Amino acid sequence: MVFNSLAFFVFLAICLAVYRILPHRAQNLFLLAASYFFYGAWDWRFLGLLLFSTVFDWTIALQLGATQDPRRRRWVVGASIVTSLSLLGYFKYAGFFADSLSRLMSQVGVSLRPFELDVVLPVGISFYTFQTMSYVIDVYRGRIAPARNLFDFALYVAFFPQLVAGPIGRAGEILPQVTAPRTQTLEKFWTGAWLILWGLFKKVVIGDNLAWLVDGVYSDAAHPTGLEVLMASWAFGIQAYCDFSGYSDIARGTARLFGFELMVNFRLPYFTTNVGAFWTHWHISLSSWLRDYVYIPLGGNRRRQYRNLFLTMVLCGLWHGAGLTFVLFGAYHGFVVALHRRFAWVFERLTPSGTFARRAWTLLSVAVSFQVITLGWPLFRASSISRSGELFRALFTDPTPGLVREWCLPFAVLCLPLLAIQLVQWWTDDLEPVARFPFPLRVVLYGALAAGIVLLGEDGGAPFIYFQF
Amino acid sequence: MRPSSTSSSSRWPWAALLAAALLLAADAAVLGPWGAWAWLAARDPEQRALARLELQRVRQAPRGEPRAFVVGTSRVQEGFDPELASRELPGIAIGKLGQPRFEPFVIRQLADDLVAARADAVAILLSEFDTHRPLRLEPVPDPGTASLGALADLLRATGPAFAVAQRTALYRLVACSALDAYRYRPILTTAGLAKLREFHFDERFGRSERGDPFRPIAMWGGTRHVVPEAARRSTFDLFPPWIGSFMGRMQAGTIGEISRGPHVAVQEALIRRAVEVLRAAGVRVAIVEGPLHPASADLHESELRGEFLAFARSLQDDLGIAFLPLDALEPYAESDFADLVHVGPEGIPKLTRSLVAGLRAAGISPRPGP
Predict the structure, then answer these.
(1) What ipTM does this complex have?
(2) Averaged pLDDT, A133-155
(3) Are B7 and A186 in contact (CB < 8 Å)?
(4) What ranges do the domains of chain A cover?
(5) Fold (CATH) for B47-178+220-361
(6) Beta strand segments in chain B, E
(7) Domain map of chain B by residue range?
(8) pTM for the whole thing?
(9) Most buried in the list A282, A299, B3, B136, measured by CB within 10 Å?
(10) Of chain B residues 171-210, which have a CB less than 8 A from chain A?
């Protein structure tokens, strides 16, 4: 069941109707059952894995809460991390590592086929595994107390709006919302509905339609020109943003309908002035997770920060998918972020002082940053390293326009609504500025978005890109 | 146990409610029965709203001129000649609602539209080919005539397990029934919206257009002028090479679907309900048995025809309709068929006269000109 399907909205309507008439504890149990149903609709066999992760880490946290012996606590938290990473490693990376090992050995003349793996990736495993890991580590660090009630913890892990593609919630933020009675107001309800409408528009109108351009150019059989690759890479950057931020908005909006507040996962990432800032505005729940549980434990800014940045970004790339293209994508970003950090003082000195000049500089920085990010997308989106190499070759050697002129109209039509809304968000420094709009403008906006979804949106329930991660 | 508190004191989202009301009003004004949809639909090169256009055409017949419709699958599309029928029944506005997959569920959907079009008589071409084949909802059959009443009847006939199994198609049918903008989206796209969202490719990309198998109105539009096409088909050597071809195999598979099973009760219930809706509105109905190529008898149980005849006669007795079995019609020869299912040029006049006979049996008689 995907957010962009009619089935989901029928499911949501039923859940809301039942939810409203239940008392608090029963609401939690009902949401848990609904979440398992939601997940089981994908593939009920993987419910066992989700249940195992839930019960295992809940038990581990209770163990941590029950002992003060540092040595024993280290063992317990270590067991949890190893188990979680083993599950993730097996289901997500085993095939990749086996294949990589086999290729490596064949380079030195050793024919090695260790074993054939045909493992199906359980939807959402990267998200809920990171969620349970952060919970255990936070309990270990003494930042939160272990949840006493298994069902409360299970709802924190499995809450359906965030289960399959985040945001990766922190126990410190979500568990209190589970255990305490939640307040539902009409205002919350309608702001949640706005998030769903805007998220759905981004996904089915902008993202899914741009996907046709991206898929066409990135297809292995295609022979695009450099400008076509450039436009398709811009399109992919916007598609990925609309797809994932659209999902996050729908998740947040859906959660808000039930009285929950999930963390903001995207804060206008393409309005940032450098790649380092981009990663603090893009998939914030993942980047902050990596900061708290990888980058800082590696030493953070205190020692070897460039190495730490690079390794963290490589891990970030690998999180996105089991493939060398993702590793290289992470390495590229790690390199760029570290480089920017190293020479940040240069950029600070170059920044002009006058108001107009400063604004122009900001605009230039945003444009350059967007382009640097765009250069990383062929690594992320292409099916293989050799294919991304072909695309880079075209990008830098073939400046002919090809079909770019014909693509300009749909590209502009699809991107302009996003740009318009984001400019307002950026200008007002408010991610939900619509409530401030004049009444007639709101009427037009709501109507235009709804009509756009019906008339221009993709209808097939195209899966979200981040489901594969 | 404390309940979560619920507050209703906050502001209502009047802007959203007004936007929704305006959208629905615009939907009805532009795409409803009196709107501009017909103008758009008539310009759709794929003619995806042919049935609705035909209904509207006949509805606009001069006051006092009886309105008659002929309904059926591609067998009607390819085998019924409206010009010949008009010569046989002068002074009658005759509509042809024949398209692939106009099976019992679509006939039930059409019943509401036929009543709205103030039909006086309807002749439906049916046989065991319609009553004994499984119900299919993917792709969604003729969303242009989707109606909530037909959906309710479908669910009543099938039950909850079917609803769960076919939920995706059912959601789409609900959306089509509720919102004309969704129902006619492909037509609107054809009318210019496509330019706003579609990226075209050339041979360097290995494809030229986007393919979209999930569009609600995708495959089964009436895209052809049926009589000339049927005439062209006669150039095929029918058997046995025909059977070996792709279309032949597909048709043979379709004939092979004719079988006993729980689907028969569902299809019969849908037909019965369609006839009930028409009869309740005072529409006279005739069921005309549709012919199949004699060779098709080898591909399914021929005794199933007996079951169809018994069902049709029960409708005749219960609902007061006319029924014309093959025995009461002009006999068909092998040479009348273009393939296993459809009649060819020689069979078109016969099938047309059979359906005209059905309309006559329902009480439609020619009206002399002024």
Answers:
(1) 0.70
(2) 93
(3) yes
(4) 24-182, 187-468
(5) Rossmann fold (3.40.50)
(6) 6-7, 67-72, 93-98, 121-126, 284-289, 322-324
(7) 17-41+181-204, 47-178+220-361
(8) 0.77
(9) A282
(10) 171-172, 174-175, 179, 181-182, 185, 188-189, 193, 195-202, 204-207, 210
